[in-house]
Amino acid sequence: MVAYRTQSGKHRVTLDADDRGPAEYFHGRTAIRTMFRQFLAAAERSRRGTTFLVQGAPGAGKTALLDVLSRIPSTSTWMTVHINARALHDPAWMARELTLAAQGLNLAGSQDAGPVYTPDPSALAVKRVLLIPPPMDRGLLLILDEAQTMLIQPKGAPIPDTLNAIHNGGFGYPVVLLAGGLSNSKTAFATMGVSRFRGGNLVNLGRLSGESERAVIRDWLVLAGGARGDVDPWIDAISKETQGWPHHIVSYGSPAAQLLKLNGGTLPDQDWQAVLNFGRQRKREYYEERASEIALEDLALLGGAIRCFGKDRQWSHSQIVSVLEVARNADPLETKGIVETMLAKGILAGDMRTYHVPIPSMEDWLQERFAAAMQASPDVWRDIFESIKAALRPAAKGQFGFSGQAGG
Ligand SMILES: Nc1ncnc2c1ncn2[C@@H]1O[C@H](COP(=O)(O)OP(=O)(O)O)[C@@H](O)[C@H]1O
Ligand SMILES: [Mg+2]
Fold this sequence. Notes:
By secondary structure, the chain is an alpha/beta fold. It contains 16 helices and 10 strands. Helix 8 (210-224) crosses helix 9 (232-242), helix 9 (232-242) packs antiparallel against helix 10 (246-262) and helix 15 packs across helix 16. The protein is globular and about 65 Å long.
C-alpha cells in the first residue's frame, strides 16, 4: 500500500491495488476488441482455434484488456478457463482446471446439464487432455496472463507440444488461447516452438488514444470522485502527465477521486497539488521498480543515447548493443542479458530487431539518469557521451523511424 499525506496534512490518500488488474473504468482498445470478436467468430466457423497474443510493457493494460476480452464470448458457445503456465506443462493440472470450469458450467444452469467433463488425469500429454471437448459442443477459450512465465519450467523438462497444438488448432473443435504478457512474450512463444502469428493475432499494446485517456480520467473524477462543475481543465493537466499510459492514469485518477470525495466534489488548490505530487511520485516509483535489476550505468547510457538522438525513436538491435558496449569491455553474452532484462522489465519494447522505450516520460526519466551520471563524474561521462555519439553516427542517417504501436 502506498500512502501519501497531502501538504495540508489533512488527508491521506492510498493506492492499494488500484494500479493493476481489471479496470474499474475501462475505455478504448475498440479496434482490438473488434479484432478479437472476429477472431472468435472465425474459430467458431472453422472449428479450429489458434493463439491471440497481447504483449506490452508493465502497466500498458494487458490484464485489464484480457479481462474485457474474456467477457466477449457467450458462455453458451464457449467455455472460458483461466490457466497459468503450469497447465501447459502438466496434464493433471490442465485436467483439474478444465474439470472445475466444466463443473461450474453445469452448476450454472440446468439447461446446460450435459455430461460432466472429466478428462483422464493420467493422460500423458496435455494435448490429449484437450482432445476432450467441453460439454454442449462449446469452444474452449483458455486465458493465460503473464505468458512470459512459460519459460520458467522445471529443469530438464521437455518443451511440451501443447502450445504448438493449440496454435495449429487440430482438436476438431475450437480451442483458442488468449495470452497476455510482457513485450518479450512473442520471443517466449518462439522458444516454446511457436514462431508465426497470423496478421491480427498479435497485438503490441501501447498507450491509450487521447480520447480514451480523457474518458478514463473523466470517470475517475466524476464517477469515482463525484466531481462537480467543469472537469476539463483537470483532465487537460492530468493527461499532459500521463501521456496515455494506463498505469499513470490510475496513479493520478485514484488519488484525485479520493480527495474529491473527501471534499464533496471539489479540489482545493492544496489537494490538487497533492494529486499531482502523488501521481509524479508513483510514476517515478514505477520506473525505479522497472529498473531495479538494471545497473544505473546502463540506464544512463540509454538516457545518453536518447539525449543524443531524440525521443520516440526506433532503435535497431545493433544500435542498442553498441550503446551498451560503449562503457564496458564488450561481452556479447552480458550485453544480450542486459537487453533481455530491459525487455522483460519494460524499459525497452519491441522484437529482436527493433526496440523503443515505450513511454515518453520514461525517456525523460532515463535522460535524468544520464544527467545525474554526468553530474557525478563529468569527465568520464563527457567522454562516454562522445563515444555514444560516435557509436550511433553511422546509423543516424535516416535509419530511425517513429515507433509504431497499436493503441486506441
Ligand atoms: N483501457 C483501460 N481503461 C481504463 N483503465 C485501464 C485500461 N487499461 C488498463 N487500465 C488500468 O491501468 C492499470 C494498469 O493496467 P494493467 O492491466 O494492470 O497493466 P499490465 O497488465 O499491462 O501490467 C490498472 O489499474 C488497470 O485497471
Ligand atoms: Mg498484468
